[in-house]
Amino acid sequence: MLEPRQEAQPQPQPTSATGFTLRVPAEEDAWHWHRVFDHPEVMEFHGGAPAELSVYQELTARQRRHHAELGFCMYSMIGTEGEGDGAVLGFTGAQPWPHDWGPVGEIEIGWRLGRAYWGRGYATQAARAALESVRAAGVRSVVAMVAAGNERSVAVTRRLGMRHAETFRTPSGREGYCFRLDL
Q: For 44-75, how does the pLDDT look when each residue is reduced to its tens digit (9 = 90+)?
C-alpha cells in the first residue's frame, strides 16, 4: 500500500512533449472533461454513454487530493498547438485503483482523450510523462486495466513496455486485460 507523501510543499507536475502539457485538474476541468468525452467512440469502453457532470466533478476533486497526498494524479492534458491550443484534450496519469474488485491497493495508469485528438501519439507521450511523477513518488509498479476490444489502449500499453498479466471479468461481466509495468 502506498503511503501519503509527507512533504508540505507542492509537488512538481509532469511536463510533456509536443502538442500539450499536463496540469493538476482545476475545478473547471470537470466541465471540460464532461464536454470532451461526450462522444460515443470515446465512451465505447467506459460504459457506452456519457457520464453526468457530477461524475467529473467528483473525479477532478479526487485527483487534486491524490496529487496533494501522493504526488501524482490523473492530469488534465492542455493543448499547446493549432486548433487545440489552450483546450483540454483529455486526461492521463495515475491513481490508486478506485474499485473493490481487480487490482485493489495498486496504482493504475490511465488515459482518455477527446475524439478530435486521437491518432497523434498524445496518449503514449502523456503516459510516459505521468509515469515520471509516479516513479518520483516511489511507486515500484503500475497496472493498466483495459477493456477487451480496446485496441487503441492495448497499443498504448505495448508502447509503454507493459506486459499482459491477466484477463479478467468486471462485476458486470465485461472482459478486460490487466497490464503491468515495473518502474
A: 998 888 889 999 999 999 999 999 999 999 99
Q: How far apart are the first and last CA of the chain?
A: 16
Q: Give the three-state DSSP class for 33.
A: helix
Query: What backbone torsions phi and psi does residue 36 show, to the nearest 5 degrees?
Result: -70, -25
The x, y and z cell numbers of residue 100, run together, are 473493490
Cα–Cα distance measured from residue 63 to residue 73, given in angstroms and rounded to the nearest whole number: 5
Within 8 A by CB and 6+ apart from 11, the residues are 5, 67, 68, 71, 72, 133, 136, 137
Closest-CA residue to 176 (of 92, 117, 108, 129): 108
d(CA 160, CA 26): 27
d(CA 93, CA 112): 10
* 3-12, 79-88, 113-122: range with lowest mean pLDDT: 3-12
Q: Coil, helix or strand for 153?
A: helix
DSSP state of 26: P
